[in-house]
Amino acid sequence: MRNAMYLAPFGELSDPRALVDVAVAAEEAHWDGMFLWDHIWQPPSSVNGMGDAWITLAAIASATRTIRLGPMIVPLARRRPQKVARESVSLDLLSDGRLTVGVGLGVDANGELSRFGEVVDDRVRGDRLDEALVVLRALWSGDLVRHRGEHFTADDVDFIPVSMQRPHIPLWGAAWGGSGNRPIRRASALDGIFPWMTSPVQLRDMLEIVEQERGTLEGYDVAIVAQTPDEAQQMQDAGANWLIRSLGPDASARQAITVATAGTSSW
């Protein structure tokens, strides 16, 4: 079982230096991972400042040596896969192969998508996400890519260098408890699943689908948020092999440092 912190770069933690301090403390306390929310905007009434997840992760990668890190999750439907490919390979090299990338649809909470003219229809965004994953993994390969799809184009291009992790950077697919099978089946084709707002019973049901799709759960990451010792044990019994401690969007720098320093005993 591995344990990770899950933090929003909001408020006091919008300063990359604050999250670097948390990551260093977490590594010293033997946490296995630290993942950051990847958002663009929320109204000042709900979030007092917001930092960039990718820039912050680069700073964390430079200041740590062992802890796994990554954005959780990247709403690929609103991103250009070629830009994500460049960013992620650079971050994987900078971290000596410690990057995990979570992917999903994202949400239009408080207009985070619609205020920027992004697609908000879930089905269309699902189609864009699936196609973006095809392009992203093709670009990661280092081979010549010829892709002309409904949403994205990569016309006779190859991306060098490739990532340190081979055959590719691990991808975890986001899924919501009770959200239907499409996100679960998408995650089944990736390297792991990151269920959100999911009960132990729902997690078992999800993993039944994943196992049917893959044939086995061996080598597959199952990362689930748990906030109490009892919940952590229930999620582990249901099949989780990563327990994620989320501090929520209102966490202060002091709270984050306290949890990081306490290590996994904070459960």
What does this structure look like?
- There is one protein chain.
- This protein has 267 residues and is of the alpha/beta class.
- The chain has a single domain, classed as Luciferase-like domain (TIM Barrel, Alpha-Beta Barrel), CATH 3.20.20.30.
- 37% of the residues lie in helices and 19% in strands.
- The chain contains eight helices and eleven strands.
- It has helices at residues 16-28, 53-63, 81-94, 122-140, 181-188, 200-214, 229-238, 253-262, and strands at residues 2-7, 33-36, 68-71, 74-75, 101-104, 145-148, 153-157, 171-176, 192-196, 221-225, 242-246.
- The strands form two sheets. A nine-stranded parallel sheet has the order 3-2-1-11-10-9-8-5-4, covered by helices on one side. A two-stranded antiparallel ribbon has the order 6-7.
- β8, α5 (181-188) and β9 form a beta-alpha-beta unit.
- α5 crosses α6.
- It is globular.
- The model has no long low-confidence stretch (mean pLDDT 95).
